[in-house]
Amino acid sequence: MQEFVQQLVNGLTWGAIYALIAVGYTMVYGVLRLINFAHGDIYMVGAMTGVYAASWLRLSGHASWPAFFVLLLSAMVVCALLGLVIERVAYRPLRDQPRINSLITAIGVSMFLQFGGQQLFGATPKAFPAEILPAIFPGTAQAPVAMGKHVLFTGEQVVIGHVSITGIDTIILLVTLVLMTSLWLVVMKTRTGMALRAVSFRFDTASLMGISTGKIISITFMLGSALAAVAGILVAFRAPKVEPLMGMLVGMKAFVAAVLGGIGNIPGAVLGGLVLGMTEVMVAGYFPQGSQWRDGVAFVILIGVLLVKPSGLLGKNVVEKV
Q1: Among positive and negative, which fits the CA dihedral 2, 256, 224, 49?
Q2: I want to staple 80 with a disulfide (CB 3.0 to 4.6 A). Which of 12, 98, 119, 222 is the partner?
Q3: CA–CA distance from 275 to each of 38, 62, 257, 268 (Å)?
Q4: What does the pLDDT look like over 68-99, one tens digit per residue?
Q5: Is residue 260 part of a domain?
Q6: Is the separation of the CB atoms in 59 and 68 below 8 Å?
Q7: Helix 2-32 and helix 191-201: axis angle, to 10°?
Q8: What is the CA radius of gyration of the chain?
Q9: Mean pLDDT of the chain
């Protein structure tokens, strides 16, 4: 049972990462009916931004929360601007063209970022400055603190019984919770969010009602890209090695998570990410040679969803006139 709970914690951590990226896929699809296949590579750019920002701002070797948040905000700003440029340059000119044109362009942008990243950053993996992240419970690294009989706080982890939650896993879960809550408040409680929902519901009608659809689409790309950047930074802290092709497989898995939850549905993307993360970890932990099957599980799930419930867990079937 303790091993199961430990695997569950690990699965929730990876599920939170998938959720952050999947929300970007589902938001763009919600307003444009476009699968932005370059989104996983924006996640890679976020991680790479962290490497260079730490060097340029001389943050390496200084473990502090301000340094951590500066790194996070730097990646979010760079990737938000990148998402804006991609939307303006690659997708906006094709908005009135057949959707297949935009889909092919999305694949082209993804390949451009992958191979352009190899030229710009080099193909060799780079070490991420993980020492910037301070102990989540300062003051307990040298003197662990016991809270009751079964709870122990150290500088690196929380131990509950025989289940340990590392500091970075705790941060991933907390940051994801805060960002998803903030996104929900923006979408549901602000004028911009109301406009985004209107554009998602009926693009042409929203335009007739005076909503600047171009502005809303740009904001959507920027929000989704910023969330992908956060995922890239958090994963880089967890496994401090980044390289230009790191977003390819993770991006595809996040797309599967978006489809699993119901593409175009933000809560569905979060649910799909969590389900996918937990499923992968359980397969790797309990099945013979599960670690070799882990990456393939996502695509088995995708096929199953498309066969059984194409609309996803929280999606709705929509009838389109042709």
Answers
A1: positive
A2: 222
A3: 23, 36, 8, 10
A4: 999 999 999 999 999 999 999 999 999 888 88
A5: no
A6: no
A7: 70
A8: 20
A9: 86
Quick: pLDDT tens for 14-31: 999 999 999 999 999 988
Question: What length is written for the chain?
Answer: 322
Please provide residue 153's backbone torsions phi and psi, each rounded to the nearest 5 degrees. Answer: -105, 130
Structural domain boundaries enclosing 135 = 15-246
**Tokens representing residue 307 in the block:** 């066969």
Higher pLDDT, 163 or 20: 20
Q: Which residues of 28-56 are buried (b: 16+ CB within 10 A; e: fewer)?
A: bbbbbebbbbbbbbbbbbbbbbbbebbee
- Whether residue 89 lies inside any domain: the answer is yes
Give the CA distances from residue 89 to residues 42, 47, 86, 218, 322, in Å, rounded to whole numbers and listed in that order.
Answer: 15, 23, 5, 11, 29
Q: Give the whole-angstrom CA distance, residue 106 versus residue 90.
A: 8
Q: Judge whether 135 lies within some domain.
A: yes
What type of residue is 55?
S
Indicate whether 184 belongs to any domain: yes
Our count of domains for the chain comes to 1
DSSP label at residue 94: G
Question: Does residue 118 have a pLDDT over 90?
Answer: yes
- Number of continuous H segments (helices) and E segments (strands) in the chain: 11, 6
Looking at residue 82, its amino acid is: L
* In contact, 64 and 50? CB cutoff 8 Å: no
Residue the block writes with tokens 């099945």: 287
